[in-house]
Automatic annotation (TrEMBL):
This is Phosphohexomutase. PANTHER family: FRUCTOKINASE, TRANSCRIPTIONAL REPRESSOR MPRA. GO terms for molecular function: mannose-6-phosphate isomerase activity; zinc ion binding. The active site is at R200. The keyword Isomerase applies.
Amino acid sequence: MSTNWYPLVFEPILKDRIWGGIKLQSILGKKISSQTTGESWEISTVSGDVSVIKNGFLEGKTLNELLEKYPEEILGKKVYEQFGKQFPLLFKFLDAREDLSIQLHPNDELAKKRHNSFGKTEMWYVMQADEGARVILGFKEGSSSDEYLQHLENKTLTTILEEIPVKKGDVFFLETGTIHAIGAGIVIAEIQQTSDITYRVYDWDRLDANGNARELHISMALEAINYNKVEVKKKYNKTTNTSNEAVNCPYFTTNFIPLDGEMTFKENSNSFKVFMCIEGEFDLVYNKEKQSFKKGETVLLPAVITDYILVGKASVLEIYIS
């Protein structure tokens, strides 16, 4: 089988969201079916939302089916040893037409105990931001559960939270427990642990089309919140035709590649690799075969693919587990 492996592309899993819009189509070329499409899950093994391959002879098979049969070939030696047959990451594009809820995610320990799930450490790469767009990330100063609850009750929570203006190219790294919200007018690429556990604490008092408020998770969030001030914005280099490290954590490494011409890769098969095209177009050349990718597309390279070339003019996120 190993000689037949090739770069895998999946059908996007599109998600309607109360805060979503149409930029996933207008900017990223996704075939959306509603005016409130908030998310495109690019690679997922979240229960009920497992990615299906759309290219090559494996077309129609799910990622989980492949992992069941060929876990080490897909994941890599090191990742397989650590995670077994589970795919440990979830890749998304998001379009926030309105503010997302103020929310946070539990750590591994709490998520395992409560939900039998991974925690949700995540990062954002800002692909597009309207004038004046901002994100909410953590507390302005250290806080406490008492102060936080008092502000939540008085509907003044945002007065103690840090608002950060954003522009294209900004990178934010959110450890579990960081209270946050993506603001209106932003398109991001999101890389996170495989988890769909979110504790929503404030939703701007909005109602859905049926006049219902979305569920909040006030009490569950209390134990999960990090009340300390956090540093979330990451600086990174933008050297052409180089893997510039943007985020490096135990759960994933993300590099920023400004591709202009050609880059040759030789891997060690310890980890799979994912490329997300965030600007421009590139070709991935492997085994004398060429696949083309444009802005808004994502590709998974099984760990057994160790020699390949990227060619083109593009900005690319390169993700793996180190």
